[in-house]
DNA sequence: ATTAGTACTATACTTTTGTATACTAAGAAT
DNA sequence: ATTCTTAGTATACAAAAGTATAGTACTAAT
């Protein structure tokens, strides 16, 4: 387990955290913006096709869906498979890395739920 | 442990995930943008004062720092303490929730590092 | 020839986010 | 009176992200 608190150690600040910082910003970039997580969630739900995703994600425009899928593909989160049938069939699938995001998502959910109970508690 | 894959279960999709989704978007909002994590990292490093944060975070303008600190305060990540000395002293401190973000950050670092090795591997 | 299905792209626009530069408020020290 | 310090705010602007609406390319069936 990496420990972000290592960054508190002045010695290590100089030598080590470069690749931690890079890893962290990678992860942020992958999840950033309004649509990335809804798309990843839909893919986890087993949606694979453009139209299905569009129907499944409230109010996303085809432009945004297209753009975000491209970014996710470039970042190695999504794989795009083309089947030369007619009409053409295209599948979007999560890569292993993409599926591994569930662990990050889970820890975000855990924090979010704890945070909600904490901040509600502190209001009383 | 919450398991995001529960969302794959059609039954649960209807009943349960509302507060998961809320928790998740809370967490995203807390970390979103260019400056939130650098600020949180600086606070973890023990920086507490406006000027220290500004010096510690490369190229942040006072306007952005001010704006982001306000958001972090509203979201219960940071506490602002005013000491009526002269010149006035103001301290920004992470709340318990704020400190707890290290667990999310750690899982993001873990994923990011794994993802880097995976995608490098897959290029050969 | 027209309609329909799939998977998008183009254009123009609005909103949000971030930048640059200058300025303010309050009291203490000189 | 003016200068110093801390902690910001004001104004104007630029860039990035997102929206709205319409249109394209391909093929197959009617």
- Uncertain segments of chain A of ≥5 residues (pLDDT<50)? 7-16
The ordered H/E elements of chain A are HHHHHEEH
Structural class of chain A: mainly alpha
Oligomer: homodimer
* Biggest sheet layout of chain A: 2 strands, antiparallel
What helical percentage do the residues of chain A reach? Answer: 55-70%
Query: Count of DSSP E strands of chain A?
Result: 2
The termini of chain A sit apart by 36 Å
- Overall morphology of chain A: globular
What proportion strand of chain A? 5-15%
Computed over alpha carbons, the radius of gyration of chain A is: 18 Å
Number of helices of chain A: 6
Give the largest interface.
A-B, 48 and 48 residues
The side-by-side strand order for the widest beta sheet of chain A comes to 1-2
The pLDDT mean of chain A sits at 86
Model description:
2 copies of one chain form a homodimer. The first copy, chain A, has helices spanning 10-15, 18-31, 36-44, 50-56, 62-74, 96-121, and strands at 78-83, 89-94. The two termini of chain A are 36 Å apart. Chain A has 6 helices and 2 strands, in the order αααααββα. In chain A, strands 1-2 form a two-stranded antiparallel sheet. Chain A has 124 residues and is mainly α. The longest helix of chain A has 26 residues, at 96-121. Helix content of chain A is 60%, strand content 10%. At the A-B interface, α2, α3 and α6 of A face α2, α3 and α6 of B. Chain A binds a DNA duplex (30 and 30 nucleotides) through residues 33-35, 49-51, 59, 61-67, 86-90.
